[in-house]
Amino acid sequence: MNALSRGTRTLLVGGLLATSMVCAVQGTATAATDSLFRSDGYGPIYVGMSQESALATGKLTNGVNTEDCGSYRWVYGAADWVTISKTYGVYQVPAPKGTHTKEGVRVGTSAADLQGLYPAGSFGTRNNHAFFSTVTPQNARNRFDFGIADGKVTSLSVRSVEAYDCAAG
Q1: What's the domain of life for this entry (predicted)?
Q2: What is the mean predicted confidence (pLDDT) over 43-56?
């Protein structure tokens, strides 16, 4: 019996847990089975990827386009937008719910722990929202931005350090 048929049989018996097993066996990246938010993006979407390639992954939906940029929602149901420059490619990737960085940062991590994990980072305010920003440890061309409220991380995203045509700050 191969792993897929074993996972499928478990699906009939075990419900939701088995659904995750079948997805993992088939290699489908979903927020439930692939919780690592990388220093270049998430799943098949990464900073610098062309708009055409990003859309071809099937992981983005409901685009809103301007002359220079497009913004697309994750199929995972995340409220934030993946921002894509038509000229330079993917600019910003928000983290879907339930993900974490390689260092273990996720929604709910304390701001003090965040600063300890990324000592080169800095706190600031943008559009009346507190954030913490740092160049990613694994990739100096990108940086993590963490939304902060009440001393805790409320959101994660990774973006290019270059201010492209659709950079928002």
Answers
A1: Bacteria
A2: 95
